[in-house]
Specification:
With 146 residues, this protein is an all-alpha fold. It has two domains: 99 residues, no CATH class; 47 residues, no CATH class. The protein has a two-stranded antiparallel ribbon. A hairpin with a 2-residue loop joins strand 1 and strand 2.
Length: 146
Amino acid sequence: MDLTKEFPRSVHAKVHGLVQIGRAIDKGKALAHGNIGEYNFNCPMDVAVFTFLGIDRDALFEVIKNAKNDDEIYAYVNTFIEKKTPEEIERWNAEWVSHQPQGESLEYFLNLRNQVAPERTDVKTWADLLDLDEKRIVPMRATANA
């Protein structure tokens, strides 16, 4: 994966039913190949999903670096996902894609949104803003204030 030429998966994309982890894997693969570009494999969003799953970032990165194919990476990650109930995964997914930034993160978010799509005041989550920034279609949301 070359993140200097393409985007990682959307936050919304699921691996074994879980959002965000696929994006983190893509960034890990790009880092392992020396072409991560402007992305960060251990950003706060990655840390959140690693914490939810109980995955050690360095251990996952070693698996990514040494894997012969994606199936080996997914098998490793799945050992952690399997420890979660379907309800825990569903709750995580719903909360994660709807989480709105606050504090300093909100200021950074608003600045980026104003650069990417100032007319899209309906976009209030990192998941949607990253999709917009990476040229994915984001449906209009009901609210348009902020």
